[in-house]
Design a protein that fits this description.
8 helices; 19 strands; 33% helix
């Protein structure tokens, strides 16, 4: 029992009318992965047997559909090419592999599909389009230790991902429930959703171990998706014949973590003497305004304000002294900078603060005074976008992470991120 191509191109109405039965896929929604074939037209044979595909019937296969002719629960023939196919009980399987090529041949030989004497035939279709909009979300917050805040924070993550069936025979054998006639991805997603969230949590924990600030997670959503796709594809492709196409990740803090971050940021702002003075002036102004409405009388209110002003005046004096000390330290450093960088003309070496250009000129600035060549970076240092030279993983001035060193992927592409911009493979 097998199928043969009915016609290579368009068909005429007369030829179509002569066919006994014409079978097409049942309604396929956006998330439908598997559907039974249904009869859309029957010729003179109006008393056909249920669950029997008559010899000579025509099966119509559309784009992005994989058709299987099933006999007694076993796949006896299939096609991955759109067109019209005639059922021939006397022929051997034709196996039209289409876009999958040797992949389907290997799956056919490995899984061992094969037919017996025709007893109960059905036609099934698998959707080869990208199945989009599969929602996910973490039930419980994921812990994330942030070295910048030096605290254990918690985040929730939600979003959507999409999958694509890349080995229909494997998918039919491993993912489709037995005796099912119509399957949406949501019907079988419980197990896959659990595996997806496990991979997501593992990815986020690794980012925490790498020292990535929690506030940078939103900008790394695409890298998270690529990493998860690569991690799950190996298992999902080999076991179930499908793979992840894209992932959209949206992280958010839980309430306590958001409150802790806000408190930390406010404290960092108040450590600036100028900002702290501004807060004090604001509070003093609000106190004077409220004194007039004091229930014990305006004079009592102003007496309280006077006491508060005295205390705050002492604090502001301390803050002013702190600001003056900071300015004095900055001025002293600026005054010492030229002396530390001075170089005696004609000296053989540049000393601790100097450097020698390729042309032989000794310099103290960032560029050669002779040829204009920029100063080479010291080993183990990097320059942030704000201009600060650093040695650690994060900028000591603005907190931005150090740029990743360039690396070459197996495909030959030179990259700077954790994933190849050409093929998506992670950095080894």
């Amino acid at each position: 029992m097998g199928i043969i191509k009915a016609i290579g191109q368009g068909i005429s109405g007369t030829l179509a009318d002569s066919w006994k039965e014409v079978i097409e896929a049942d309604n396929m929604g956006d998330q439908t992965v598997f559907a039974q074939g249904v009869m859309i037209r029957r010729g003179q044979n109006t008393k056909g047997t249920v669950d029997t595909v008559s010899n000579g019937s025509i099966i119509h296969v559309y784009d992005n559909q994989f058709m299987m002719l099933v006999d007694g629960g076993k796949v006896v023939d299939y096609t991955a090419e759109p067109g019209y196919y005639k059922v021939d009980n006397s022929s051997l399987p034709s196996l039209f592999n289409g876009q999958f090529g040797d992949t389907l041949k290997d799956a056919w030989g490995r899984i061992g599909f094969g037919g017996q004497t025709p007893t109960k035939q059905k036609v099934f279709f698998i959707n080869l389009q990208e199945i989009k909009g599969i929602k996910f979300g973490t039930r419980n917050p994921i812990n994330y230790f942030d070295t910048f805040y030096n605290a254990e924070l918690f985040i929730r993550v939600h979003g959507t991902y999409s999958v694509k069936i890349v080995n229909p025979l494997q998918f039919y054998a491993e993912a489709i429930p037995k005796n099912a006639d119509h399957v949406d991805f949501t019907d079988i997603n419980e197990q896959y959703s659990t595996e997806f969230l496990e991979a997501l949590q593992s990815t986020i924990n690794q980012m925490s171990a790498d020292g990535l600030r929690i506030s940078f997670l939103s900008s790394k959503a695409r890298e998270v998706g690529q990493y998860m796709a690569h991690t799950l594809d190996e298992e999902w492709n080999q076991m179930r014949g499908m793979e992840i196409q894209a992932v959209g990740v949206i992280p958010s803090y839980d309430e306590k973590s958001q409150e802790l971050i806000n408190t930390r940021n406010e404290g960092a702002m108040l450590s600036d003497p100028g900002v702290a003075q501004g807060y004090m002036v604001k509070n003093m102004s609000e106190g004077v305004k409220a004194a007039g409405s004091n229930s014990a009388g305006a004079m009592t209110g102003f007496m309280g304000v006077g006491m508060g002003v005295g205390a705050m005046g002492n604090m502001m004096g301390s803050l002013n002294q702190m600001g003056q000390n900071v300015q004095a330290q900055q001025a002293a450093q600026a005054a010492q900078a030229p002396a530390a960088g001075a170089v005696v003309a004609g000296a053989a070496t540049a000393g601790a603060a100097g450097w020698t250009c390729k042309c032989g000129t000794v310099n103290t600035g960032k560029f050669c005074s002779n040829c204009g060549e920029s100063k080479p970076a010291e080993a183990g240092t990097w320059t942030c976008e704000c201009g600060t030279v650093n040695t650690g993983k994060f900028c000591s001035e603005c907190g931005k992470p150090a740029p990743a060193a360039d690396w070459t992927c197996e495909c030959g592409t030179v990259n700077s991120g954790k994933f190849c911009s050409n093929c998506g493979k992670p950095r080894a």
